[in-house]
Design a protein that fits this description.
Rossmann fold; eight-stranded parallel beta sheet; three-stranded antiparallel beta sheet; 16 helices
Length: 430
């Protein structure tokens, strides 16, 4: 961290200052006659070697206390009381390393995106989350209807996932009222964001201020600031409008689109995609969390233009009402059908398959590929990324490690960060 050289320079400077002061004091002692009390004030009744030891001990004690209290005061924002990592040097070193991490853009929404961010923030502080704002159910839907704001629910989950504030503050943001007329079902974080938007007069400023309050590591951006509605056309040619109605309908989705279709992307989101080193799409509900971001035209064009490596994290389990009986190939096919071939270069798929409880109406997503053409321009990485305590979700530490392994080319046969897809499908097992 280049600290020792400056500490050494500080010691040299203090030593020279002490020597200079000693020379001046000696000269004054020889040239001037001091009153008798100076004999006792300068401890001349003690041998010189004894006075030397006393001064050294006092100096060491004073310097130690001063450094300790100075660090405790100046670095309070870095190492808070009760922090698991009580070492200031270790905390500073960690922050320095994280600041040099890759610029990662994560695209999605819901619980899947928050899980991903929780893992990635331990590897880099250069994070940007691009979040869907098409949610129209639950607390977010009611707030959108009452106040005409962008859906805050998925943004709130990302704020909580990236927060470095005390756990109590994160729990407060996630707290959901269970009673109270007009309050029941609302989360405190959603209400806070909407209130902040009215106070500041701007939804973007509200997210920025909420990030500052929670000491968020990274940036959180909505994919668009337009009040959009997600719509779907089913295999039976029936149209369904509204994110929560699409999931509840339970029919096979043939086509997904936004209303209005020309919604402009958030300019900072487009800039983040173009400047990124690594882009991660998913995990999350394929049609209602991941896809709405990619349906924003400017964002989709930026994804196809960026030089960053693009990774799609396939879900570990199917979602009832959206992706029943889907395999990895079905996820890729649906993704490319709504965007463009080559939207992703690499797919991370879970290979630790197990049995899910019947009440979930879900099955593990297997690597089925009946149509080999789906994988012609995609590299598929198989890895154990499922959470042992909840096989319906990803493990945030395993997932982050797998993503960084792909980015740094640590997989067998994988190229490094300059990777471009090959002509044929490549499967790597981790």
């Amino acid at each position: 961290m280049h600290i020792k050289r400056w500490l050494f320079l500080l010691v040299v400077g203090m030593t020279l200052l002490s020597l200079g002061a000693a020379y001046l004091l000696r000269e004054a002692y020889l040239l001037y006659d001091f009153p008798g009390v100076a004999h006792y004030l300068t401890l001349q009744f003690i041998p010189r070697w004894g006075r030397g030891i006393i001064f050294v001990c006092v100096a060491v004690g004073s310097v130690s206390i001063a450094f300790w209290r100075l660090n405790a005061s100046l670095l309070y924002a870095v190492v808070r009381p009760g922090s698991q990592n009580g070492s200031m040097a270790e905390s500073l070193y960690t922050k320095r390393v994280l600041s040099r991490g890759p610029h990662v853009v994560a695209i999605g929404g819901g619980t899947g995106l928050s899980v991903l961010l929780r893992g990635l923030k331990d590897h880099t502080s250069n994070l940007t989350a691009i979040v869907t704002v098409a949610d129209d159910g639950g607390s977010s839907g009611r707030l959108r209807q009452d106040f005409g704001v962008v859906a805050p629910g998925d943004l709130r989950q990302c704020l909580s996932a990236l927060a470095e504030a005390e756990p109590l503050m994160s729990r407060l943001f996630q707290y959901r009222f269970r009673a109270g007329e007009g309050l029941e079902g609302h989360s405190f974080g959603n209400l806070f964001i909407v209130a902040m938007a009215h106070v500041t007069g701007n939804f973007e400023t509200a997210i920025h201020e909420a990030s500052r309050v929670l000491n968020v590591r990274g940036n959180i951006l909505p994919s668009t600031l337009v009040d959009v509605t997600l719509s779907a056309r089913t295999q039976d040619d029936e149209f369904v409008h509204g994110e929560h109605k699409i999931t509840e309908h339970g029919a096979s989705i043939h086509e997904l689109f936004l209303n209005p279709s020309n919604a402009e992307a958030h300019p900072d989101a487009v800039r983040a995609v173009l400047d990124a080193d690594l882009i991660v799409i998913g995990p999350g509900s394929l049609y209602t969390s991941v896809m709405p971001n990619l349906l924003v035209e400017d964002l989709r064009k930026a994804l196809l233009s960026t030089s960053a490596q693009r990774i799609f994290v396939c879900n570990v389990a199917t979602q009832h009402g959206e992706t029943d009986d889907f395999g990895v190939a079905d996820h890729i096919e649906a993704l490319e059908r709504h965007t463009a071939p080559g939207i992703v270069e690499t797919v991370i798929a879970n290979n630790n398959l197990g049995v899910l409880p019947d009440e979930l109406h879900s099955t593990p997503v297997a690597l089925n590929h009946p149509d080999a053409r789906v994988f012609e321009h995609v590299r598929v990485i198989q890895a154990d990324v499922v959470a042992s305590e909840n096989r319906y979700r990803h493990d945030f530490q395993k997932l982050a490690a797998a993503i960084l392994d792909v980015y740094h080319g640590r997989e067998s046969g994988m190229p490094g960060a300059e990777h471009r897809p090959s002509e044929e499908a490549v499967f790597v097992t981790r």
